[in-house]
C-alpha cells in the first residue's frame, strides 16, 4: 500500500528530486511515532533506515555498562541523521533516542542506496550533509574537552541552529532544562545555572519549558574566542 507522506514535502532535498524518485520515497518510507525516552535504534543493530525528524527531538549517544553516556548530537525537527552508517552498511555505532515524543520519517536503507545510484541531486545533498555532520562532531568533541560548562551549554543550543543540518529551527526552542542536560550530559541543576548566566548576558531569554535565542552570533562565539 502506498503511503502519502505529505511530511516529506517540507524538506528541500526531497523537492529537488524528480517526480519518479519522489514517488518511490512516498511509497517506501514511513512515519513512525516514538515516546520520550524510547530507543529509535540501538548501538550494534543493523542500520536499516535513514532517519528524519518531522516533529520532536532526538539525540545520538553512546552509553557504557555503568550507564554513563556521551551525546554526539541533538537532532531537532527538520534534521536527518544516520546516513553514514546506512552508506557503509555497518552496524549502528550509537544509540538514537527520542528526547521527547517525536514523529520520525524512516527511509529504508535499500531505498537510500537506490537514490544514491540514480539521483545527482540526492548525492549532492548527502555529501553536504556528511561534510557538515563531520564538522559538527569535531566541534562537539572540542567543546567537551576545552570549554567550561557555561560555554558547553551555549554551544549545544547554538548547534541546533545549523542552517544546513537543521533548517527549520526557530528562535524559540521548546527545550526544558532536563532536555538540555540530556543533550550535553550535564546535570539539570548545572544547566539551570548556565542558562541563568547566558540570560544575564542577553544571549537568551528563559520561559517555561522554552528558550528564546536573542543573540545567536553571540551564543555561537561564547567561550570559544580563546580556542
Walkthrough of the structure:
The structure is a single chain. The protein has helices at 12-15, 19-28, 83-88, 109-118, 120-146, 149-159, 177-184, 188-200, 216-221; strands at 30-34, 39-41, 49-55, 57-63, 69-76, 80-81, 95-98, 102-108, 172-173, 204-207, 210-213. The chain has 227 residues and is an alpha+beta fold. It has two domains: 6-137, Jelly Rolls; 148-221, Arc Repressor Mutant, subunit A (Orthogonal Bundle). The strands form three sheets. It has a four-stranded antiparallel β-sheet with strand order 1-8-3-6. A four-stranded antiparallel β-sheet has the order 2-7-4-5. A hairpin with a 2-residue loop joins β10 and β11. The termini are far apart.
What proportion of the residues form beta strands (DSSP E)? Answer: 15-25%
Measured distance between first and last alpha carbons? 54 Å
CATH evolutionary superfamily of the largest domain? Jelly Rolls
Number of helices: 9
- Note the main sheet: 4 strands, antiparallel
Helical coverage, percent range: 40-55%
Q: In which order are the strands of the major sheet placed?
A: 1-8-3-6
Helix-strand category = alpha+beta
CATH class (first level) name of the largest domain: Mainly Beta
Shape: globular
Q: Find the CATH topology of the largest domain.
A: Jelly Rolls
Average predicted local confidence, pLDDT: 90
Q: How many domain modules?
A: 2
Model regions low in confidence, pLDDT < 50 over at least 5 residues: none
Amino acid at each position: 500500500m502506498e503511503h502519502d507522506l505529505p511530511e516529506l514535502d517540507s524538506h528541500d532535498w526531497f523537492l529537488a528530486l524528480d517526480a519518479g524518485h519522489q514517488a518511490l520515497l512516498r511509497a517506501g518510507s514511513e512515519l513512525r511515532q516514538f515516546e520520550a525516552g524510547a530507543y529509535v535504534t540501538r548501538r550494534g543493530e543493523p542500520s536499516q533506515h535513514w532517519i528524519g525528524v518531522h516533529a520532536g527531538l532526538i539525540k545520538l549517544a553512546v552509553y557504557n555498562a555503568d550507564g554513563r553516556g556521551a551525546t554526539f548530537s541533538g537532532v531537532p525537527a527538520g534534521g536527518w541523521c544516520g546516513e553514514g552508517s546506512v552508506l557503509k552498511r555497518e552496524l549502528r555505532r550509537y544509540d538514537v533516542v527520542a528526547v521527547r515524543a517525536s514523529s520520525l520519517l524512516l527511509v529504508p536503507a535499500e531505498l537510500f542506496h537506490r537514490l544514491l545510484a540514480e539521483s545527482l541531486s540526492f548525492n549532492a545533498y548527502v555529501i553536504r550533509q556528511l561534510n557538515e555532520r563531520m564538522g559538527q562532531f569535531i566541534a562537539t568533541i572540542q567543546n567537551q574537552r576545552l570549554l567550561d560548562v557555561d560555554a558547553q551549554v551555549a554551544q549545544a543550543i547554538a548547534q541546533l541552529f545549523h542552517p544546513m543540518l537543521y533548517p527549520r529551527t526557530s528562535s524559540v526552542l521548546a527545550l526544558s532544562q532536563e532536555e538540555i542536560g540530556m543533550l550535553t550530559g550535564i546535570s539539570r541543576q548545572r544547566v539551570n545555572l548556565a542558562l541563568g548566566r547566558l540570560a544575564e548576558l542577553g544571549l537568551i531569554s528563559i520561559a517555561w519549558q522554552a528558550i528564546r535565542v536573542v543573540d545567536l552570533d553571540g551564543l555561537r562565539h561564547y567561550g570559544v574566542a580563546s580556542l
